[in-house]
Amino acid sequence: MKITIIGLGSVGSAVATAVANTGLAHEIVLFDRDGVRARAAAEDLGHAAAFSYDIKITAVNNYRAIRGSEIVIIAAGANQKPGETRTDLLNANAAVISDIVPRVMANVDAKTVKLIIVTNPLDVMVMLAQKLSKLPASRVIGTGTMLDSARLRTILSRQLSVSTQSINAYVLGEHGDSSMVVWSSACVGGIDLNSFCRQTKISLPQTTRNTIEHRVHNAAYEIIRGRGATWDGIAGAVADLVRCIVNDEHRIVTVSIIDGIANKAIAMSMPRVVGNSGVIATLNPKMDATESAALRRSAKIIRKNYDSIK
Ligand code: NAD
Predict the structure, then answer these.
(1) Protein residue whose Cα sits closest to atom 27 of ligand 1
(2) Backbone φ and ψ of 286, nearest 5°
(3) Relative to the CA of 229, which ligand 1 atom is closest?
(4) Is the pLDDT of residue 262 over 60?
(5) Cβ neighbours of residue 201 closer than 8 Å, sequence gap 6 or more
(6) Is 36 exposed, middle or buried (CB count within 10 Å of its CB: 0-12, 13-18, 19+)?
(7) Is the distance from CB of 11 to CB of 41 less than 8 angstroms?
(8) Were both Cys, which of 42, 63, 157, 212 would link to 59 (CB 3.0–4.6 Å)?
(9) Rounded to two decimals, what is the model's pTM?
(10) What is the pLDDT of residue 208?
């Protein structure tokens, strides 16, 4: 499979490595408006690939060279500086998506291509990319809260002393400050979280849950403070999404696509079945009244941000 990555900064470079390491691409094409950076990334990645898979890795300086790509990953645009929120990037990155998506669409097969959106603020960029591309919503997929859900499962795994693989717990809504944890449907090894805690005599009171949710919300801010940007976690999420698509896994992940009707439609993360044709189904987990209200609030914030693009 030929996969294109647009934007080779901290995130795009890490994504390129992670996607190459899936072994699922026979060709990876890299494009950045900074051609020197893209060429350097292609060189470095090519050397790394000599230790793993035979992949053709090329940096290109025009969009014609992305022809034949079945997946296009967009990781270009401004990132958060310490203290900035994802929403602070809104207008700058709307311009970046508006620059990239029409050029991509002029060179790919609209009947099959899947766009993976990484650029923040994620959900609004998914909405914009879908509008510009005119692709079915099921094939304009934002990584959404895959990363936030991974952060939640990592913290819970340490707290409960079980593998992250045994934890089904989701962060939904905006990939941003209004995302919410669905405690009501969290399961460990197929057992609901409360029952698991009773059986293992682990205490997980509301105060601890609040602290965990706070840590999930603040994870990106902490990482940006410590190393200037985040890249490894999101690269893992993108590679996982590529696996779901290429292998037609029908796995359930919390991605962001446009859902809803006409001008009520917004993109936000829900648990979704993903396979070769993109998103196949959206699921509605059990939520209590507080969680449902938090999800509605998150949806409103995304819509408001989308409507405020200048
Ligand atoms: P960065 O500044 O390191 O790199 C951005 C790259 O985009 C640069 O190489 C730049 O030349 C390129 N670029 C900008 N405009 C372009 C255009 N019009 N065409 C082609 N290339 C262009 O930033 P980063 O840390 O790699 O972050 C990239 C984006 O990913 C940011 O929006 C960031 O917020 C987002 N991000 C998302 C998640 C997530 O979970 N979705 C996680 C981390 C970062």
Answers:
(1) 79
(2) -65, 130
(3) 25
(4) no
(5) none
(6) exposed
(7) no
(8) 42
(9) 0.97
(10) 97
